[in-house]
Design goal:
There is one protein chain. With 157 residues, the protein is an alpha+beta fold. 23% of the residues lie in helices and 24% in strands. It has two domains: 4-119, Arc Repressor Mutant, subunit A (Orthogonal Bundle); 125-157, no CATH class. It is built from three helices and eleven strands. The strands form three sheets. A six-stranded antiparallel beta sheet has the order 4-3-2-1-8-9, with no helix packed on it. Helix 1 (36-47) packs across helix 2 and helix 1 packs across helix 3 (70-84). The longest helix has 15 residues, at 70-84. The two termini are 25 Å apart.
Length: 157
């Protein structure tokens, strides 16, 4: 997980690069104009390493206790998707829960020496594997009865 306390020199995903200390986003080496709040939202999503970040958590972090409408957050997400252009799927909306950064992240430490560390996004529902090697995602909900797969696995565990 990328944490603000140990901010790397750069974060790369696809043809994009972020320089957190300078608060800059680049695509193919060209700077992309991005507002401060949109940058903060992007960093919060990247730091979650593929986990879904709730809307309330994003509002608390980016607006730091100010009372703002959820539409402000949605506006920043639109700005990020516009900045990503054809790669707008890098930010996924998870209905009723929040947002998820889906890109494969490469982190470069200060000095830029050595190989970047690659962090792959984790699925929002952990994958399980049965005895025959088939994978599935357990999805549980308070509104639905507990799931049991044909393999006999109980998703509550």
């Amino acid at each position: 997980m990328v944490r603000q306390s140990d901010t790397p020199a750069s974060i790369e995903f696809g043809h994009f690069s972020i320089f957190p200390h300078r608060r800059q986003l680049f695509a193919d080496g060209q700077p992309i104009a991005l507002g401060g709040r949109a940058f903060d939202v992007l960093m919060a999503l990247i730091e979650a390493s593929g986990a879904v970040v709730g809307k309330d958590a994003l509002l608390r972090r980016v607006w730091q206790g100010r009372i703002v409408d959820e539409n402000r957050l949605a506006g920043e997400i639109v700005a990020l998707r516009k900045a990503f252009g054809a790669d707008r799927q890098l930010i996924r909306t998870v209905a009723g829960r929040g947002y998820q950064f889906t890109g494969e992240i490469r982190v470069r430490a200060e000095g830029g020496t050595g190989h970047p560390v690659t962090l792959r996004p984790q699925p929002s529902h952990p994958l399980r594997q049965n005895a025959t090697g088939h994978l599935w995602a357990c999805r549980t909900s308070l509104r639905s009865p507990p799931l049991r797969h044909r393999s006999g696995h109980d998703c509550r565990s």
